[in-house]
Amino acid sequence: MLKLFRWLLWLTVTLILLLVAGAVLIWYFAVRSLPDYNGSYEMAGISAPVEIVRSTENVPHIFGETDEDVFFALGVAHAQDRLFQLTVLRRAAQGRLSEIYGATAFPLDNLARRLGLQERAEASVAAQDSETLAALEAYSAGINEWIRQVNENAMGKGAPEFFLFPDQITYWQPADSLAILKLLAASSSRAVGDEVLRARLSLAWPEQGPAFLSPNDPVPAPYASLFPGARMAPPRRSLPENAYPDLRGFLHPGIGLGANGFAASSDRTAADGSLLANDPQTPLTVPGLFYLARLELTSGGAIGATIPGIPAIWSGRNQDLAWGLTPAAVDDADIHIEEVQPGASDRYLGLRGWTQFKTDSAVIRVLDGQSQRITLRETENGPLVPGIDPGLDDVIPSGHVASLSWTGLSREDRTMSALIGLMRSDSRETAAKAMEMTVAPALSATLADKGGVTQIIAGARPMRPDGHPTGGMMPSPGWLPEARWTGISSIADEADQGQLAPGMVLATEEGPDGLRRRRLAYLLMDREVHSRDSFIATQLDVVSPAARALLPLVGANLWFSGEPTEAGSPERQRQDALNLLAEWDGGMSEHLPEPLIYAAWMRELQKRLIQDELGPPAEDITQLHPAFIEAVFRNRNGASRWCNIVQSAPDEDCTTIARQSLDRAILDLTERFGPEVASWRWGDVHYVRQNHPALGGISGLGWIMNLTQAVSGGEYTLARSGLLGSGNNPYQAINGAGYRGVYDLADPDSSVFIISTGQSGHPFSSHYDDLAELWRRGEYIGMSLDPGLARAAAVGVTRLEPAQ
Q: pLDDT digit string (tens) for 184-205?
């Protein structure tokens, strides 16, 4: 017995020592991939020594003799801190995520290959101007040189993720950066999703269904009337759980990106200098999409937010100009329904009769699985895209397929040249001229210089015939001449600011309700004079204009005015909830119960209004649509008919539905948080879980890699924090301002910025999440172009020497 005990003890100690040794070994090799910010490296591809001065927050300030050397060093910095992210973004654009993630990434790869993002990017390289080509080539060389340094000096594979995922890294090419930009363009657009949903609504309720998305517009002709005699696929009960691909590529087509951009000229500011603010809104991952950098170019210093893989500052400033980019509300894509010739699957109905598909094939390699060969088909309208939207199958008649026309399919896309030109511009006029080259995504560019502020819309817009059968609002028959685009026109116009006061401009991601824009306009016009601090307060505003608009309407006949009912009863809970909401200003603070009561009430209300009329499509509508609820409770165009539940015997009115919805919402919250209404907190459910797109889901690593933080705000606040809308916690925040910047041209070095995580993508780096808490609290870090300040606060200076 004693002998057995000794053997067990020896075995246990041995296993513990092996585990400790293994952990130490893993830690050692992982730490070796941390870059030495005080290192000196000989590198081919630069003409003279270059310095990368890292500020306290690890923001690289890059100083070189030529612009090409500076872009080279930006490539090095991106690769030092975000090498895995660089490769994942490239794989997402190329359709090669399955090679490292396996079969779960196949839908993303399938779509990227059908869109041909990489191929069209390669064709667009020749369309760039000479300065942009030089920047792309130098940037690519910088990434490749850092990869060479990693390989030759055994620097832990360059990123710890490569210990668990395949680490074959091909050399970077200029086309790779253009492909990532095309991926960003595809991710910015919601046009396809809106078309498909509107068609599904029309099929569910031809007379009123499309009014859900556009309650103030005339209801279009029924979608089914476009295909007389055709048999539509039966709608599914709901979309499968994996219908929306995860964010392993940080971006994917159709997610819809947003931003706010606003500016005030010097005669509207306290310090006699223009102000500009911008906050691009993206899915929140760790690391985030944005990376802060300062480039000292021959045209002057430029500082702001870059995107790894793209050698341009997306939002920032130089000595004379500040700029911020917002996706423009341009309907840049159309789905066409193509009829396939019976008995000949390789032919479709074109303008001149049955026409051969343009056909190619591609092989998608799958980790730990069989490679998949896919057939790529293209019509005169564009490529076939069967997986572009989860609900698309519901609206395709039998014997038909779907093709896509999209401005981003251009093979002469000069958007990268526009971004590089914008960064070098010294005035609003030269910036506007540079933005004329934009194709996709279409952008609202907010510009400020010492002379004033401007906002322009730049990009490509489809030209649809006047007799277009759907006006681009729903998929259209691809064989009709009147459904075809007649071309693409370039937009480079000054944006209409409506009734906004002179010296003010704004842009915001907007829907048919206009609530966010009205809130932003109100805050800008509420003060005669603005300061940097007032712009910061506006950028961080968490008052919900949707709550302010809807609660007086929905609760008009519910506010309690009699004696309190028995404590603990459902009626008393309703009274308590209504009393709280009656005194609430609409602020979606994480510390309050009112935002949670409001969100749960409106979620249940919308569900009850649409479920019986729309059927299966209602289960896939997870975002609140305030314009629809407002139209119903104001009975616009008879919209109150949505309040009656068709399957029930009595005729319900809107007050009844509002009360039932509130009671159900309170019951759900009580089961989760207890009966004391005043003790509920929005932050208990409204938190952002910033997952690492590769390692965050691996058991045991998630607690190291992922960040979880309670946040204020909501879907319609200026400090946007969109809701998941489904699952066990539909109130979880899934997107927000991945970057915030406020630029003060009266005192440029007092400008500030912040990103949602940290500069480094390495979990063992102190800069992995050091900015996350500042971002959550609404704080910023300084933005200076003063070389002396950068050097004085440097945590390291990396020196790049020309190879001998």
A: 999 999 999 999 999 999 999 9
Give which of 297, 289, 263 is closest to 184, Cα–Cα.
Answer: 289
Rounded (to 5) percent helix, strand, coil in the chain? 40, 20, 40
| CA-CA-CA-CA dihedral for 292, 297, 302, 305, to nearest 10 | -30
pLDDT tens per residue across span 255-283: 889 999 999 999 999 998 999 999 999 99
Q: How far apart are CA 341 and CA 469, in angstroms?
A: 22
* Residues 625-657: tens digit of each pLDDT: 999 999 999 999 889 999 987 666 567 799 999
Coil vs helix vs strand at 172: coil
Residue type (1 letter), 65: E
DSSP state at residue 80? H
Distance CA 416, CA 435 (A): 10
Give every CB contact of residue 208 below 8 A, 6+ residues apart in sequence.
219, 613, 639, 641, 642
Q: Where are the beta strands (DSSP E) in 380-494?
A: 382-383, 400-406, 443-449, 452-463, 476-477, 487-494
Tokens 């094939």, residue located? 361
- What is the residue range of 630's domain? 545-585+593-680
Q: What is the DSSP letter of 732?
A: -
Give the pLDDT confidence score for residue 727 in this predicted structure.
86
**Considering its fold, how many domains does the chain have in total?**
1
In a domain, 605, yes or no: yes
The answer to whether residue 669 is domain-embedded is yes
Beta bridge partners of 443: 327, 458
Identify each DSSP E strand in 573-675 by its residue range. Answer: none
Please report how the helices 654-673 and 570-582 are oriented relative to each other, as an axis angle in degrees rounded to 10: 100
**What does the CA dihedral 551, 555, 556, 557 come to, rounded to 10 degrees?**
180
Burial class (CB in 10 A: 0-12, 13-18, 19+), 655: middle
Structure tokens at 282: 């993206």
Work out the mean pLDDT of the chain and round it to a whole number: 91
**Would you list which residues are annotated within the binding site?**
195, 331, 334
Rounded to two decimals, what is the model's pTM? 0.94
Read off the tokens for 162.
């490569």
Residues 404, 379: Cα–Cα separation, whole Å: 9
Q: What b/e string do you get for 95-118 counting C-beta neighbours within 10 Å, with b at 16 or more? A: bbbbbbbeebbbbbbbbbbbbbbb
Phi-psi category of residue 182: left, alpha or beta, with phi > 0 → left and psi -120 to 50 → alpha = alpha
Tens of pLDDT along 354-385? 999 999 999 999 999 999 999 999 999 999 99
Percent of the residues in the chain that have a pLDDT greater than 90, as a whole number: 76
304 in the Ramachandran plot: left (φ > 0), alpha (ψ -120 to 50) or beta?
A: left
pLDDT, residue 649, reads: 53
The helix/strand/coil state of 783 is: coil
Show binding-site residues for Ca(2+).
195, 331, 334
Distance CA 286, CA 760 (A): 9
Q: How many whole angstroms separate alpha carbon 6 and alpha carbon 730?
A: 54
Residue-wise pLDDT for 675-684, tens only, equals 999 999 999 9
Residue 361 CB coordination number (10 Å):
10
CA nearest to 166, candidates 373, 366, 32: 366
Place of tokens 């056909």: 359
What are 425-481's pLDDT values in tens digits? 999 999 999 999 999 999 999 999 999 999 999 999 999 999 999 999 999 999 999
| Chain mean position to CA 463 | 27
Q: Determine, yes or no, domain membership for 70.
A: no
| 268 CB-side CA count, 13 A | 24
* Nearest by Cα to 398 from 342, 350, 357: 342
Determine the straight-line distance between the first and last CA of the chain, rounded to whole angstroms: 70
Max mean pLDDT range (52-61, 164-173, 724-733): 52-61
pLDDT band per the 50, 70, 90 thresholds, residue 236: low
Please indicate, yes or no, if residue 505 is contained in any of the structural domains. no
